[in-house]
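ZP: hey, is the S-adenosylmethionine complex queued? I don't see it on the tracker
AM: it wasn't, my bad. submitting now with these inputs:
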Amino acid sequence: MTPTPKLIDPFARAITYLRVSVTDRCDFRCVYCMSENMTFLPKKELLSLEELDRMCSAFIDQGVEKLRITGGEPLVRKGIMTFFEGMSRHLTSGALKELTLTTNGSQLRKYAQALADCGVKRVNISLDTLDEAKFADITRWGRLAQVLDGIDAATEAGIKIKINMVALKGTNDDELEHVVSWCAVRGFDLTFIEVMPMGDLGNEDRLDQYWSLEDLRAQLRENFTLIDLPDQTGGPARYVRLEETGQRIGFITPLTHNFCESCNRVRLTCTGQLFMCLGQEDEADLRKHLRASPDDDGPLIDAIHRAILRKPKGHDFDYSRQNEGGKMSRHMSHTGG
Ligand code: SAM
Ligand code: SF4
């Protein structure tokens, strides 16, 4: 029997999905995500691994069933496997249905088997191109071969893979069919993401890179038959199946479609701030409640409930007037993508 959800927002949406950024650091510097010379948070600002465990366990106690670990790059956080090992107890108890992560894949050769041992069954891997030179341009510090090897390691460990590809006009628009077939052959799901106006990166205008997924879909239709699938995730992605290959393709279109009405998630930063919406500034400082009562999670749980009651109806991203409407000054690596 499904337990009655405990966290219900003002729009009657049950909050059962927590995304947690465990670090703001990363071994890449993707052009749409970070500037080359990022200033990272002082280490003492970050939740410790023990605090992350307490925080996530409090959410799980309040009915969160799915936990996605992200960052920055979650696998560069020192000792992160201790945290995954801790979370696996909630899978064993049945309270948590899914423990997963979003990663750039660079550290998967090292960690894939350990993640699988902790009960991680699926990972999202961000990969915007299969071209070595373009990969180096987009990620600045990344090496494609290392990521492809990480993907192999995850496959060998029996982990199911979804590739996330940010649609970038003038960069990966000529690779669409190639990436689709590459994923089809390997049995990977594939999701396209519209580039969002996050972070003051100073170097690029997000609007120049913006490739609408409406246009991307039209390009896909030139070679494939797209069959719409009913939404099953309560998340922002809309899915189709390609008749010719049978593979599932997702589209995350915050800018062309508003997906907020079915939102079931909140986001915790690596410093313990809870963002009730990716596209709004309102946040709740949970760290202060966590640190104020180290032996009692009661005040933390009360603070979580009060925060959920502030969850807004939706975001205000809008490119329609040819500007970066609703732009957020914080970086994706802060809130966790
Ligand atoms: N480092 C991990 C990774 O790259 O998968 C996890 C964190 S990253 C911030 C999570 C996701 O956010 C990635 O898929 C990345 O492509 C996406 N992302 C970052 N900045 C973005 C932006 N401005 N617009 C759209 N997606 C973005
Ligand atoms: Fe790092 Fe992920 Fe941001 Fe790229 S998208 S810089 S891999 S956090």
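AM: back. Residues 247 and 336 are 27 Å apart (CA to CA).
ZP: great, adding it to the tracker
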